[in-house]
Amino acid sequence: MTAPWDPAAPGVLRLPSGRLVRGRGLRAGPPDGPAPTYALYLLGRPPAAPPWEFRWLRWPDFRLPSDRAGAYRLLREAWRRTATDRVELACRGGRGRTGTALACLAVLDGVPPAAAVAFVRRHYHPRAVETPWQARYVRRFDAGR
Fold first, then answer.
1. Which of 6, 42, 54, 102 is deepest in the core (most CB within 10 A)?
2. 3 lies in some domain
C-alpha cells in the first residue's frame, strides 16, 4: 500500500469512508509534495503522459464526459484505487470537471447523490461543479450505471 495523501495538503478531499483523493488544476503546474500513483485526467484532449499510471477521460471544458458508461467505469476504478493508492483527479482549472468527478466519487463512497455537490463544495472548493448540467450529472450518477 502506498503512503496516503497528507489530509491537510491543498486539494485533498477526505471522503466519508476516510479515503483520500486529490483534486487539482493542471494549469497551476505540479504541486509540492508526493506525486500520485494513479491519476484520472478529465480533458478534451489527451494529456502529456506523466511518469505515473494514469487514464484519460475525454471531457470537454464546461461539459460532460463524452462516454458516460466509460466515465462511470473510470470513476469507479479511481474510487476503488483510493483504498491503496494516491489518486489524483484533475482538469485544466481544477473546479468544474474535477469537482464533478470528486462529487461522483463521493456518491460511490456513500454520499447521497442530492448532497454530493454540497459535500464537495464544503470540503474541496466552494465553486466546484460549475454548471447546472454538471450538478444534474452528479444527481443522476449512481442511477446511470
1. 102
2. no
